[in-house]
Amino acid sequence: MRFLAARVVLAGLIAMAALCGLAGRVQAYPQFQFSSGTTQCSQCHYGPAGGGLITAWGRSEAGDTISRGGDGAFLHGLWTPPSWLALGADVRLAALRNDVGGRQSPEYAAFPMQSDAYARLDLPAHLSVYLQAGVRGDVGRDESLDGRLSSVTDRFISNEHYVMWRPSPAGPYLRAGRFFAPFGLRFVEHIFYVQRYTGYDLYNETYTVSGGYLSKDWELHLSLFAPPPESFPLPLQSVGVRAHGGAAYGERRFADRAAVALQARLGVGSEATRYQVGAVGKLWVDRAHLLLLGEADFIRLQVPASSAGENQFVSYLGATFFPARGFMAGLAYERFQEDLSLGRTAHDAFDVEASVFPWAHFELLLIGRYQFLGSGATSDGAHASLGMLQLHYYL
Amino acid sequence: MIVFVALAFAPACGGTDDRPARWSFISSAIVEPACATVNCHSAVSARAGIDLHARDIGYYTLLNELYVIPRDPQESALIDLLNAQGTRRMPPDAPLPQADIDLIQAWIAAGAAND
Predict the structure, then answer these.
(1) Which domains, ranges and CATH numbers included, belong to chain A?
(2) CB contact set of A286 (below 8 Å; sequence gap of 6+)
(3) Are A383 and B84 within 8 A, CB to CB?
(4) What is the model's pTM?
(5) Interchain proximity A103–B86, CB inside 8 Å
(6) How many CB atoms lie within 10 A of CB A83?
C-alpha cells in the first residue's frame, strides 16, 4: 500500500509541476486513424476511445510514421519513465486573425493556447489512474472583459482524471471519472460544429462511467454522465450546457481502411433535453493518400418551459491529404442547422488546415475558416473568417 | 460516404419562423449554446460579469445590466452587440443568424418577460 501511495503522490506532483501554461482540449487526431497504418484510436492513446496521453506505440508512430524524423519518446528518449508510469505534456502557442464584423474587427492576437500535463499510473489488478491538468486557455482580447477568471490561479483545471480497469488491449474495459463519453469525431480543434453543438465543446467534460469492448474490427462504448456538481471547486467545473444522461458509440471497421459508427446520446438538463442520433464514417483511399471523415447527427431539442422544441442537424465532411511523410492538408465543410424547418437558421463553415511535422514532438499548423450564417433564404446573413497559426510541442 | 455528402449538403427548408419568442426557449436554444461557452459567459468565467449559463441568471443579468430594455429593442445594447452596430460583435467567434436576432428582438419588443 505504501508503494501504491507513493506512486499516486509522485504522479500528482509531476502533474502539478507542469501547471504553468494555458490549457486547451485533450488532444486527438482522428486524421491518423487508417492513414498511419494504425486502425484503432486506442492503439496510440491510453484512453479506450482515443484522445489524451499517447502510448509507446503512439510515440513510436509519431516519430517513425507521422513526423519527418526524430524520437517520439518522452523527453525525446533522454529519460525513460518506469514501466508503471507514463508522462506527457502539450504546449500550443497561437496567433490569429479573427473577423466577425463590427467596430473591433478584424482583431489580431497572439497567445499561449494550451499547456496540459498528463500522468498515467499502472496499479495492480489491471487498474490504472489517469490525471490531466493544466490552465484554461484565453485569447485575452480585452482586460475590460475580465470575468471570474482574472488570474492564472483561477484558471487551473483538470478536465480529465479517471480510474480504469482494462485487463488487455482487446476485450472489455471499465472507467470512471471525468472525461467525455465516447461520441463522434474528436478533433484537436474545438471550434467544429459537431463538437460545439453536441455537448463536446472545450472544457465541457462530464463525470462519466463508461464501459465497453474493444476488438480488432469493432468497438463499443456505453456511458452514463453527469455534470460536475456545483459544489465542486473551480478547477473541476465545466462550461457549456449542463446535462446528465447517457451515450452509446459503436464502430465497425472494414479491411483496415474504413469504418462506420452509429451513435446516440441523451442529455437531460434542468431547462432542456437533447436527443441525439448520428453516424460517423471514415474511409482511407490509399492510392490517393486521402482520408475522408464524416459525421452527421440529428438532434431533437425539447424545452418544456415553453412547450416547444425543434429538430436540429449538425454535420462535418472533410478530406485530408497526406502528400508525404510529415505533411497533412485538409478541407472540410460543416453545417449546423438550428431548426430544420427554418432555412435562415443555418450555420455553414468551410475549413482549410495544413500541418507540418518537421520533427517528432513538433507541429506547425495553419487553419483558415470561413463561416456564413443564415443561408437559404436571405442575403443579409453575417459572416466570419478566422486565420490561425499554431506551434504545437508535445513532451 | 455518399449518405454523408447528401446529408451535409442538404438544402435547408425556407419556412416561416414559428418558434416561440419566449425567454425559456431563446435561452435554451440560442443563448446558452452560443454564449455560455469556453471562457465567455459561462458560470465559470462570466466574462465582463455576464453569466448566461442558465435561464434565470441570464435573464436577470441582461436586464439588470441594461443590455435589454423591455419593449425597446432599438435601445437594447444586446441587439447592437448581436448586429455589430457601432460596437463589437457578439458572439465573437460564431455570429448568430439574423433569424435568431429577429427572434430575440421580437421577445424584447413583446416586453422581455422571463417566460
Answers:
(1) 2-138+152-394 (2.40.160.10)
(2) A257
(3) no
(4) 0.90
(5) yes
(6) 8
For residue A164, give how far its alpha carbon lies from the nearest alpha carbon of chain B (Å).
Answer: 27
In the block, which residue shows the cell 513526423?
A67
Q: What's the sign of the alpha-carbon dihedral A206, A27, A322, A289? A: negative
- Please write the tens of the pLDDT for every residue from A23-53: 445 567 899 999 888 889 999 999 999 999 9
pLDDT, tens digit, 9 for 90 and up, residues A144-175: 666 667 677 778 889 999 999 999 999 999 99
Position A328, amino acid: M
The three three-digit cell numbers of residue B73, written as one number: 429593442
Q: Does any domain span residue B7?
A: no
Between positions 57 and 96 of B, the ones with CB within 8 A of A are: 84-89, 92-96
Residues within 8 A of A (CB atoms), B 15-54 only = 15-17, 19-20, 22, 24-25, 27-30, 32-33, 36-39, 41-50, 53-54
Tell me which residue range forms the domain holding B87: 21-109
The SS3 assignment for A175 reads strand
Predicted ipTM of the assembly: 0.92
Strands A244-254 and A107-123: unpaired
